[in-house]
Amino acid sequence: MSDFENRQAWDLGAWPEMFEKAKELLAMIFSGPPDIQTNRMVFTIASLTAGCRHCQAHGAYGLDKAGVELAKIQALWTFESSELFTDRERAALRFGVAAASVPNSVTSEHHRDLRAHFSDVEVRTLIGVVSVAGFMNRYNDSLATVTGAASADWAAEHLASVGWDIGKHVGAPHEQRADPPGS
Fold it and tell me: Does domain 7-163 have CATH number 1.10.4160.10?
């Protein structure tokens, strides 16, 4: 018997009230300014920083579905040196790394950099993105949530070259599903 035999009974899909509120919050934040692609990039970089392979797969797959080029998604792992990112995007991604770090490493320099590129409303949204990423990262990584096949297969095909693997989120055969509940 697996250590995670009951994890599907504990995932957010098994807690309908929490799951619905989480979906509402995620929808509100991801659709906010500056734009869906920047918000999803910040979510993904926060998940990279936190180490949650499940959220990395979902974030990167979401970027693909939002129309971001594969090369740019793969370059998130090296965004500081990649020519695929603008100074504006780098400011948001640097903030995402610092805000998702434990302990938090956001400095006044991060805020100066953000304010050079983003409005107050946009900064507030980026803080919200990192915050919900933190919740999702902690919940899914602590549970070792089984990553849905669509996200896992996409990530295995496109992100293995940058070091991604499914790790503990692979699940037993009886836990496999095409997508997470409610997708």
Answer: no
